[in-house]
Amino acid sequence: MRGVSIIGIGETKMGKLPDKSLRDLIREAGSKAIADAGIEKERIQAVFVSNFNSSYLCYQSHIGPMVTEVLGLENVPAIRTEGACASGSLAFRQGYLAVASGMYDMVLVGGVEKMTHRATEEVTTGIASASDYELEASLGVTFPSVFAMIANRYFYEYRNVREEMALCAVSNHNNAVLNPDAQMQKAVTVEQVKNGFPVAYPLTVFDCSLVTDGAAFLVLTTTDIAKQISKKRVVEVMGLGHGGDTLTAATKKSLTTFAATRQAAEQAYKMAGVTPADIDLAEVHDCFTITQIINIEDLGFFPKGKGGDAVAEGKITLHGSKPINTSGGLKAKGHPIGATGISQIYEIVTQLRGEAGPRQVKKAEIGLTHNLGGTAATCTVNIFRGL
Amino acid sequence: MAKKAKIYTYSIINSASADFVDKVPYVVAILEDPAGKKFASFIEGYKEGLNVEIGMDVELVKEDEAGRAIYKFN
Q1: What are phi and psi of A208, to 5 degrees?
Q2: Which residues of B touch A (CB under 8 A)?
Q3: How many degrees, rounded to 5, is the angle at CA B11 between CA A259 and CA A196?
Protein backbone atom coordinates (compact mmCIF):
# COMPACT_ATOMS: atom_id res chain seq x y z
CA MET A 1 0.00 0.00 0.00
CA ARG A 2 1.21 3.48 -0.86
CA GLY A 3 1.50 6.28 1.68
CA VAL A 4 -1.42 8.72 1.50
CA SER A 5 -1.42 12.38 2.50
CA ILE A 6 -3.81 15.30 2.67
CA ILE A 7 -2.79 18.33 0.59
CA GLY A 8 -5.98 20.35 0.52
CA ILE A 9 -8.72 21.22 3.02
CA GLY A 10 -11.84 23.35 2.78
CA GLU A 11 -15.00 23.84 4.79
CA THR A 12 -17.95 26.18 5.13
CA LYS A 13 -18.77 28.02 8.28
CA MET A 14 -21.03 25.65 10.22
CA GLY A 15 -24.44 26.79 11.30
CA LYS A 16 -27.97 27.65 10.40
CA LEU A 17 -27.54 28.69 6.77
CA PRO A 18 -31.03 29.17 5.29
CA ASP A 19 -29.70 30.93 2.18
CA LYS A 20 -27.33 28.11 1.23
CA SER A 21 -28.45 25.06 -0.73
CA LEU A 22 -26.68 21.71 -0.81
CA ARG A 23 -25.09 22.94 -4.04
CA ASP A 24 -23.88 26.16 -2.44
CA LEU A 25 -22.33 24.28 0.49
CA ILE A 26 -20.59 21.81 -1.84
CA ARG A 27 -19.34 24.61 -4.12
CA GLU A 28 -17.87 26.60 -1.26
CA ALA A 29 -16.13 23.79 0.63
CA GLY A 30 -15.07 21.79 -2.44
CA SER A 31 -13.60 24.83 -4.21
CA LYS A 32 -11.72 25.83 -1.06
CA ALA A 33 -10.17 22.35 -0.74
CA ILE A 34 -9.02 22.30 -4.38
CA ALA A 35 -7.63 25.85 -4.12
CA ASP A 36 -5.88 24.98 -0.85
CA ALA A 37 -4.23 21.98 -2.54
CA GLY A 38 -2.89 24.31 -5.25
CA ILE A 39 -3.85 21.88 -8.00
CA GLU A 40 -5.75 22.08 -11.27
CA LYS A 41 -9.11 20.41 -10.66
CA GLU A 42 -8.49 18.22 -13.73
CA ARG A 43 -6.06 16.18 -11.61
CA ILE A 44 -8.93 14.82 -9.48
CA GLN A 45 -9.72 11.29 -10.66
CA ALA A 46 -12.58 10.29 -8.33
CA VAL A 47 -14.90 11.71 -5.67
CA PHE A 48 -16.00 10.07 -2.41
CA VAL A 49 -18.71 12.11 -0.74
CA SER A 50 -20.71 11.50 2.39
CA ASN A 51 -24.27 12.41 3.16
CA PHE A 52 -26.53 10.94 5.81
CA ASN A 53 -30.06 12.25 5.51
CA SER A 54 -30.68 14.51 2.51
CA SER A 55 -32.88 11.91 0.87
CA TYR A 56 -35.31 12.55 3.74
CA LEU A 57 -34.60 16.13 4.82
CA CYS A 58 -34.00 17.60 1.33
CA TYR A 59 -35.62 15.00 -0.97
CA GLN A 60 -32.18 14.65 -2.57
CA SER A 61 -30.17 11.48 -3.10
CA HIS A 62 -27.38 10.84 -5.62
CA ILE A 63 -25.09 13.43 -4.08
CA GLY A 64 -22.00 12.09 -5.90
CA PRO A 65 -22.75 13.53 -9.35
CA MET A 66 -24.07 16.68 -7.70
CA VAL A 67 -20.53 17.27 -6.38
CA THR A 68 -18.85 16.65 -9.73
CA GLU A 69 -21.38 18.82 -11.58
CA VAL A 70 -21.16 21.71 -9.11
CA LEU A 71 -17.35 21.64 -9.06
CA GLY A 72 -17.02 21.20 -12.84
CA LEU A 73 -15.27 17.83 -12.60
CA GLU A 74 -16.14 16.37 -15.97
CA ASN A 75 -16.68 12.63 -16.25
CA VAL A 76 -15.26 12.01 -12.79
CA PRO A 77 -16.76 8.97 -11.06
CA ALA A 78 -18.35 9.65 -7.68
CA ILE A 79 -19.66 7.54 -4.82
CA ARG A 80 -21.79 8.55 -1.82
CA THR A 81 -21.15 6.87 1.55
CA GLU A 82 -23.66 6.54 4.40
CA GLY A 83 -22.97 5.27 7.91
CA ALA A 84 -25.12 7.62 10.00
CA CYS A 85 -22.92 10.08 11.90
CA ALA A 86 -19.79 8.22 10.73
CA SER A 87 -20.67 8.77 7.06
CA GLY A 88 -17.93 11.37 6.58
CA SER A 89 -15.04 9.30 7.76
CA LEU A 90 -16.29 6.38 5.65
CA ALA A 91 -15.91 8.62 2.58
CA PHE A 92 -12.41 9.47 3.79
CA ARG A 93 -11.60 5.80 4.30
CA GLN A 94 -12.78 4.89 0.78
CA GLY A 95 -10.72 7.73 -0.68
CA TYR A 96 -7.70 6.59 1.31
CA LEU A 97 -8.05 3.00 0.09
CA ALA A 98 -8.45 4.15 -3.52
CA VAL A 99 -5.17 6.08 -3.40
CA ALA A 100 -3.26 3.62 -1.22
CA SER A 101 -4.17 0.73 -3.53
CA GLY A 102 -2.87 2.50 -6.63
CA MET A 103 -6.31 2.78 -8.19
CA TYR A 104 -6.07 6.58 -8.26
CA ASP A 105 -3.32 9.13 -7.59
CA MET A 106 -5.53 12.00 -6.50
CA VAL A 107 -9.09 12.06 -5.16
CA LEU A 108 -11.51 14.50 -3.56
CA VAL A 109 -13.32 13.37 -0.42
CA GLY A 110 -15.98 15.31 1.41
CA GLY A 111 -19.29 15.49 3.13
CA VAL A 112 -22.34 17.71 3.15
CA GLU A 113 -25.54 17.98 5.18
CA LYS A 114 -28.43 20.42 5.28
CA MET A 115 -30.71 20.07 8.32
CA THR A 116 -31.77 23.34 9.90
CA HIS A 117 -34.61 24.15 7.48
CA ARG A 118 -36.78 21.38 8.97
CA ALA A 119 -38.80 21.42 12.21
CA THR A 120 -37.21 19.85 15.31
CA GLU A 121 -39.53 16.81 15.30
CA GLU A 122 -38.73 16.17 11.61
CA VAL A 123 -34.99 16.35 12.27
CA THR A 124 -35.52 14.07 15.28
CA THR A 125 -37.37 11.60 13.04
CA GLY A 126 -34.58 11.71 10.45
CA ILE A 127 -31.82 11.23 12.99
CA ALA A 128 -33.74 8.37 14.65
CA SER A 129 -33.24 6.42 11.41
CA ALA A 130 -29.63 5.96 12.53
CA SER A 131 -31.02 3.51 15.09
CA ASP A 132 -33.36 0.61 14.22
CA TYR A 133 -36.74 1.92 13.07
CA GLU A 134 -38.82 -1.15 13.87
CA LEU A 135 -37.18 -2.16 17.15
CA GLU A 136 -36.36 1.30 18.55
CA ALA A 137 -37.59 4.44 16.77
CA SER A 138 -41.14 3.14 16.22
CA LEU A 139 -41.43 2.59 20.01
CA GLY A 140 -40.63 6.24 20.68
CA VAL A 141 -36.89 5.82 21.22
CA THR A 142 -35.17 8.98 19.97
CA PHE A 143 -31.47 9.26 19.27
CA PRO A 144 -30.75 11.50 22.28
CA SER A 145 -32.69 9.02 24.45
CA VAL A 146 -30.35 6.20 23.38
CA PHE A 147 -27.38 8.15 24.68
CA ALA A 148 -29.39 9.25 27.72
CA MET A 149 -29.90 5.54 28.48
CA ILE A 150 -26.17 5.03 27.99
CA ALA A 151 -25.50 7.89 30.45
CA ASN A 152 -27.85 6.43 33.09
CA ARG A 153 -26.19 3.04 32.72
CA TYR A 154 -22.74 4.67 33.01
CA PHE A 155 -23.86 6.38 36.24
CA TYR A 156 -25.00 2.98 37.55
CA GLU A 157 -21.87 1.03 36.57
CA TYR A 158 -19.25 3.68 37.44
CA ARG A 159 -20.38 6.91 39.03
CA ASN A 160 -22.57 9.92 38.34
CA VAL A 161 -20.64 12.16 35.93
CA ARG A 162 -23.41 14.74 35.41
CA GLU A 163 -21.00 17.54 36.42
CA GLU A 164 -18.18 16.27 34.20
CA MET A 165 -20.55 15.90 31.24
CA ALA A 166 -21.38 19.58 31.64
CA LEU A 167 -17.66 20.37 31.79
CA CYS A 168 -17.20 18.66 28.39
CA ALA A 169 -19.75 21.07 26.92
CA VAL A 170 -18.05 24.01 28.65
CA SER A 171 -14.63 23.00 27.28
CA ASN A 172 -15.89 22.44 23.73
CA HIS A 173 -17.74 25.75 23.72
CA ASN A 174 -14.62 27.55 25.00
CA ASN A 175 -12.70 26.13 22.02
CA ALA A 176 -15.47 27.06 19.59
CA VAL A 177 -15.23 30.68 20.70
CA LEU A 178 -11.78 30.62 19.06
CA ASN A 179 -12.95 28.91 15.85
CA PRO A 180 -14.39 31.22 13.18
CA ASP A 181 -16.06 28.22 11.44
CA ALA A 182 -17.94 27.17 14.59
CA GLN A 183 -21.71 27.41 14.81
CA MET A 184 -21.79 28.43 18.50
CA GLN A 185 -18.96 30.89 19.19
CA LYS A 186 -20.32 31.34 22.65
CA ALA A 187 -19.25 30.13 26.09
CA VAL A 188 -21.62 28.21 28.36
CA THR A 189 -21.50 27.50 32.10
CA VAL A 190 -21.92 24.24 34.00
CA GLU A 191 -25.17 25.59 35.50
CA GLN A 192 -26.55 26.50 32.06
CA VAL A 193 -25.81 23.00 30.78
CA LYS A 194 -27.39 21.28 33.81
CA ASN A 195 -30.49 23.49 33.78
CA GLY A 196 -31.14 23.38 30.03
CA PHE A 197 -34.32 21.93 28.51
CA PRO A 198 -34.42 18.22 29.47
CA VAL A 199 -34.46 16.71 25.97
CA ALA A 200 -34.00 13.16 27.28
CA TYR A 201 -33.17 12.78 30.97
CA PRO A 202 -30.37 13.06 32.06
CA LEU A 203 -29.38 14.94 28.89
CA THR A 204 -30.37 18.57 28.48
CA VAL A 205 -30.28 20.45 25.21
CA PHE A 206 -26.75 21.62 26.13
CA ASP A 207 -25.55 17.99 26.33
CA CYS A 208 -26.56 17.45 22.70
CA SER A 209 -24.59 18.23 19.58
CA LEU A 210 -26.02 20.85 17.25
CA VAL A 211 -28.28 20.63 14.24
CA THR A 212 -26.10 22.09 11.51
CA ASP A 213 -25.81 22.94 7.84
CA GLY A 214 -22.31 22.62 6.44
CA ALA A 215 -19.80 20.91 4.20
CA ALA A 216 -16.14 19.95 4.33
CA PHE A 217 -13.80 18.58 1.67
CA LEU A 218 -10.21 17.25 1.44
CA VAL A 219 -7.81 16.47 -1.40
CA LEU A 220 -5.87 13.21 -0.95
CA THR A 221 -2.88 12.06 -2.94
CA THR A 222 0.13 9.81 -2.50
CA THR A 223 2.70 11.01 0.01
CA ASP A 224 5.30 11.01 -2.81
CA ILE A 225 3.23 13.38 -4.96
CA ALA A 226 2.31 15.45 -1.89
CA LYS A 227 5.98 16.05 -1.09
CA GLN A 228 6.62 17.19 -4.67
CA ILE A 229 3.75 19.60 -5.10
CA SER A 230 2.48 20.76 -1.71
CA LYS A 231 3.46 24.22 -0.55
CA LYS A 232 2.06 23.54 2.90
CA ARG A 233 3.04 21.05 5.58
CA VAL A 234 2.09 17.62 4.26
CA VAL A 235 -0.17 15.67 6.63
CA GLU A 236 0.16 11.93 6.19
CA VAL A 237 -2.26 9.23 7.25
CA MET A 238 -0.27 7.06 9.70
CA GLY A 239 -2.98 4.55 10.48
CA LEU A 240 -6.69 4.00 10.30
CA GLY A 241 -9.25 1.58 11.64
CA HIS A 242 -12.88 0.70 11.09
CA GLY A 243 -14.90 -1.09 13.76
CA GLY A 244 -18.42 -2.44 13.82
CA ASP A 245 -21.08 -3.49 16.32
CA THR A 246 -24.81 -4.34 16.37
CA LEU A 247 -27.32 -1.71 15.23
CA THR A 248 -29.57 -1.79 18.29
CA ALA A 249 -28.64 -0.61 21.78
CA ALA A 250 -30.20 -3.58 23.57
CA THR A 251 -28.03 -6.15 21.76
CA LYS A 252 -24.67 -4.66 22.73
CA LYS A 253 -22.54 -6.51 25.27
CA SER A 254 -21.88 -3.21 27.02
CA LEU A 255 -23.44 0.23 26.78
CA THR A 256 -20.64 1.94 28.68
CA THR A 257 -17.72 0.99 26.45
CA PHE A 258 -18.07 0.92 22.68
CA ALA A 259 -16.72 -2.24 21.04
CA ALA A 260 -16.60 -0.55 17.62
CA THR A 261 -14.37 2.22 18.99
CA ARG A 262 -12.02 -0.22 20.67
CA GLN A 263 -11.74 -2.28 17.48
CA ALA A 264 -11.14 0.75 15.22
CA ALA A 265 -8.64 2.24 17.67
CA GLU A 266 -6.69 -0.99 18.00
CA GLN A 267 -6.34 -1.25 14.21
CA ALA A 268 -5.33 2.40 13.85
CA TYR A 269 -2.75 2.37 16.67
CA LYS A 270 -1.22 -0.86 15.36
CA MET A 271 -0.96 0.40 11.79
CA ALA A 272 0.46 3.74 12.91
CA GLY A 273 2.86 2.11 15.37
CA VAL A 274 1.89 4.50 18.14
CA THR A 275 0.17 4.32 21.52
CA PRO A 276 -2.53 6.57 23.00
CA ALA A 277 0.20 8.45 24.87
CA ASP A 278 1.75 9.51 21.54
CA ILE A 279 -1.38 11.38 20.41
CA ASP A 280 -0.93 15.13 20.85
CA LEU A 281 -4.57 16.08 20.22
CA ALA A 282 -7.79 14.44 19.12
CA GLU A 283 -11.19 15.23 17.70
CA VAL A 284 -13.57 12.70 19.27
CA HIS A 285 -17.22 12.16 18.44
CA ASP A 286 -19.10 14.17 21.07
CA CYS A 287 -22.62 13.64 19.74
CA PHE A 288 -23.58 13.92 23.41
CA THR A 289 -21.44 14.91 26.38
CA ILE A 290 -21.53 11.40 27.88
CA THR A 291 -20.15 10.07 24.58
CA GLN A 292 -17.08 12.30 24.89
CA ILE A 293 -16.31 10.79 28.31
CA ILE A 294 -16.77 7.22 27.05
CA ASN A 295 -14.69 7.96 23.91
CA ILE A 296 -11.65 9.29 25.74
CA GLU A 297 -11.69 6.08 27.80
CA ASP A 298 -12.25 3.74 24.83
CA LEU A 299 -9.44 5.42 22.86
CA GLY A 300 -7.08 4.59 25.73
CA PHE A 301 -6.37 8.18 26.78
CA PHE A 302 -7.70 7.53 30.28
CA PRO A 303 -8.59 4.37 32.24
CA LYS A 304 -12.14 3.00 32.04
CA GLY A 305 -14.42 4.81 34.45
CA LYS A 306 -11.87 7.61 34.95
CA GLY A 307 -12.74 9.78 31.94
CA GLY A 308 -14.83 12.03 34.15
CA ASP A 309 -11.90 12.56 36.53
CA ALA A 310 -9.66 13.58 33.61
CA VAL A 311 -12.28 16.08 32.46
CA ALA A 312 -12.65 17.49 36.00
CA GLU A 313 -8.86 17.87 36.23
CA GLY A 314 -8.81 19.98 33.05
CA LYS A 315 -6.73 17.48 31.07
CA ILE A 316 -8.83 17.76 27.91
CA THR A 317 -8.92 21.55 27.61
CA LEU A 318 -7.02 23.43 24.91
CA HIS A 319 -3.89 23.70 27.05
CA GLY A 320 -4.37 20.49 29.02
CA SER A 321 -2.20 17.38 28.65
CA LYS A 322 -4.56 15.84 26.05
CA PRO A 323 -6.48 18.54 24.16
CA ILE A 324 -9.80 17.16 22.92
CA ASN A 325 -12.08 18.77 20.35
CA THR A 326 -10.01 21.92 19.83
CA SER A 327 -12.46 22.82 17.04
CA GLY A 328 -15.38 22.97 19.46
CA GLY A 329 -16.47 19.47 18.49
CA LEU A 330 -19.92 18.38 17.39
CA LYS A 331 -21.20 20.16 20.48
CA ALA A 332 -20.18 23.70 19.50
CA LYS A 333 -18.46 23.70 16.09
CA GLY A 334 -21.49 21.76 14.89
CA HIS A 335 -22.67 18.40 13.61
CA PRO A 336 -23.55 18.58 9.90
CA ILE A 337 -23.88 14.82 10.03
CA GLY A 338 -22.50 13.79 6.64
CA ALA A 339 -19.72 16.39 6.83
CA THR A 340 -18.71 15.82 10.47
CA GLY A 341 -16.07 13.12 9.96
CA ILE A 342 -14.40 15.28 7.29
CA SER A 343 -14.70 18.43 9.39
CA GLN A 344 -12.87 16.63 12.24
CA ILE A 345 -9.99 15.86 9.86
CA TYR A 346 -10.06 19.51 8.69
CA GLU A 347 -9.34 20.55 12.29
CA ILE A 348 -6.50 18.07 12.79
CA VAL A 349 -4.83 19.10 9.51
CA THR A 350 -5.23 22.77 10.48
CA GLN A 351 -3.58 22.09 13.86
CA LEU A 352 -0.75 19.96 12.40
CA ARG A 353 -0.05 22.73 9.88
CA GLY A 354 0.13 25.25 12.74
CA GLU A 355 -2.69 27.29 11.18
CA ALA A 356 -5.19 27.16 14.05
CA GLY A 357 -4.57 30.73 15.23
CA PRO A 358 -5.72 31.46 18.79
CA ARG A 359 -6.73 27.83 19.37
CA GLN A 360 -3.40 26.39 18.17
CA VAL A 361 -2.07 23.71 20.51
CA LYS A 362 1.65 23.93 21.34
CA LYS A 363 2.66 20.43 20.31
CA ALA A 364 0.86 19.28 17.18
CA GLU A 365 2.80 16.47 15.50
CA ILE A 366 0.39 13.55 15.75
CA GLY A 367 -3.41 13.95 15.77
CA LEU A 368 -6.34 11.55 15.87
CA THR A 369 -9.95 11.65 14.70
CA HIS A 370 -12.72 9.41 16.05
CA ASN A 371 -16.10 9.29 14.28
CA LEU A 372 -19.04 7.25 15.57
CA GLY A 373 -22.15 6.21 13.67
CA GLY A 374 -25.53 5.35 15.16
CA THR A 375 -25.51 3.71 18.59
CA ALA A 376 -21.76 3.13 18.26
CA ALA A 377 -22.57 0.64 15.50
CA THR A 378 -19.99 2.07 13.10
CA CYS A 379 -16.69 3.62 14.14
CA THR A 380 -13.61 4.88 12.37
CA VAL A 381 -10.38 6.10 13.92
CA ASN A 382 -7.72 7.89 11.86
CA ILE A 383 -4.22 8.92 12.98
CA PHE A 384 -2.27 11.66 11.19
CA ARG A 385 1.23 13.12 11.39
CA GLY A 386 2.77 16.25 9.98
CA LEU A 387 5.81 15.51 7.78
CA MET B 1 -42.48 -11.79 25.97
CA ALA B 2 -41.96 -12.13 29.70
CA LYS B 3 -44.80 -10.85 31.90
CA LYS B 4 -42.29 -9.10 34.14
CA ALA B 5 -38.98 -7.47 33.29
CA LYS B 6 -36.45 -5.20 34.99
CA ILE B 7 -35.22 -1.81 33.82
CA TYR B 8 -31.62 -2.19 32.59
CA THR B 9 -31.51 1.49 31.71
CA TYR B 10 -34.00 4.22 30.80
CA SER B 11 -34.61 7.79 29.75
CA ILE B 12 -37.46 10.27 30.23
CA ILE B 13 -38.15 11.94 26.89
CA ASN B 14 -39.33 15.53 26.49
CA SER B 15 -38.31 16.06 22.86
CA ALA B 16 -39.87 13.43 20.61
CA SER B 17 -40.03 12.44 16.97
CA ALA B 18 -43.07 13.43 14.89
CA ASP B 19 -45.18 10.38 15.87
CA PHE B 20 -44.64 10.81 19.63
CA VAL B 21 -44.80 14.59 20.23
CA ASP B 22 -48.21 14.31 21.89
CA LYS B 23 -46.95 11.72 24.40
CA VAL B 24 -44.21 13.72 26.16
CA PRO B 25 -43.01 13.32 28.81
CA TYR B 26 -42.71 9.57 28.42
CA VAL B 27 -40.26 6.83 29.37
CA VAL B 28 -38.38 4.45 27.12
CA ALA B 29 -36.15 1.76 28.51
CA ILE B 30 -33.96 -1.19 27.75
CA LEU B 31 -35.48 -4.03 29.74
CA GLU B 32 -33.97 -7.32 30.84
CA ASP B 33 -36.26 -10.33 31.14
CA PRO B 34 -35.68 -13.16 33.68
CA ALA B 35 -33.76 -15.12 31.02
CA GLY B 36 -31.34 -12.22 30.60
CA LYS B 37 -32.61 -11.11 27.21
CA LYS B 38 -32.47 -7.32 26.65
CA PHE B 39 -34.81 -5.31 24.44
CA ALA B 40 -36.08 -1.75 23.99
CA SER B 41 -39.56 -0.88 25.20
CA PHE B 42 -42.03 1.95 25.77
CA ILE B 43 -43.09 2.11 29.44
CA GLU B 44 -46.65 3.31 29.98
CA GLY B 45 -47.86 5.22 33.01
CA TYR B 46 -45.10 7.76 33.57
CA LYS B 47 -46.19 10.86 35.43
CA GLU B 48 -43.91 13.77 36.18
CA GLY B 49 -42.18 13.25 39.51
CA LEU B 50 -42.31 9.44 39.39
CA ASN B 51 -38.97 8.07 40.54
CA VAL B 52 -37.61 5.78 37.83
CA GLU B 53 -34.59 3.63 38.66
CA ILE B 54 -32.42 0.96 37.11
CA GLY B 55 -33.53 -2.41 38.51
CA MET B 56 -37.23 -1.47 38.83
CA ASP B 57 -39.83 -4.10 37.87
CA VAL B 58 -42.25 -3.40 35.02
CA GLU B 59 -45.20 -5.46 33.73
CA LEU B 60 -46.10 -6.48 30.19
CA VAL B 61 -49.11 -4.67 28.70
CA LYS B 62 -49.06 -5.99 25.15
CA GLU B 63 -46.82 -7.07 22.31
CA ASP B 64 -47.27 -6.97 18.57
CA GLU B 65 -46.38 -9.35 15.73
CA ALA B 66 -43.00 -7.68 15.19
CA GLY B 67 -42.06 -8.61 18.77
CA ARG B 68 -42.29 -5.07 20.07
CA ALA B 69 -43.52 -4.91 23.63
CA ILE B 70 -45.17 -2.20 25.70
CA TYR B 71 -44.70 -2.45 29.47
CA LYS B 72 -46.07 -0.40 32.38
CA PHE B 73 -44.86 0.72 35.78
CA ASN B 74 -46.20 -1.34 38.68
Answers
A1: -100, 145
A2: 8-21, 23, 26, 28-30, 38-42, 54, 66-68, 70
A3: 105
Closest residue of B to A128, CA-based?
B17
Q: Do A145 and B28 touch (CB under 8 A)?
A: yes
Residues of B in contact with A199 (CB under 8 A): 13-15
CB–CB of A384/A349 below 8 Å?
Answer: yes
Q: Are A92 and A242 in contact, with CB atoms under 8 Å apart? A: no
The residues with which A236 forms a beta bridge, in sequence order, are A5, A385
- Buried b / exposed e across B37-72, counting CB within 10 Å, b at 16+? ebbbbbbbebeeeeebebebebebeeeeeeebbbbe
- Given the residues A58, A85, A168, A287, select the one marked as catalytic: A85
pLDDT in tens, A153-179: 999 999 999 999 999 999 999 999 999
* 3 state DSSP class of A45: coil
Write down the ipTM of this complex.
0.97
pTM above 0.95, yes or no: yes
3-state helix, strand, coil in chain A (%, to 5): 40, 20, 40
Helix, strand, coil % (nearest 5) of chain B?
Answer: 10, 50, 45
CA neighbours closer than 13 Å in the CB half-sphere of residue A98: 23
Can you tell me the distance from the alpha carbon of A359 to that of A10, in angstroms, rounded to the nearest whole number?
18
Q: Strand, coil or helix: what is A339?
A: helix
- Residue B6 per-residue DSSP state: E
Range A204-210 average pLDDT: 97
Q: Are A165 and A194 in contact (CB under 8 A)?
A: no
User: H or E element: which one contains A375?
Assistant: none
Element (H, E) at A228: helix A223-229
The rounded distance, in Å, linking the Cα atoms of A354 and A344 is 16
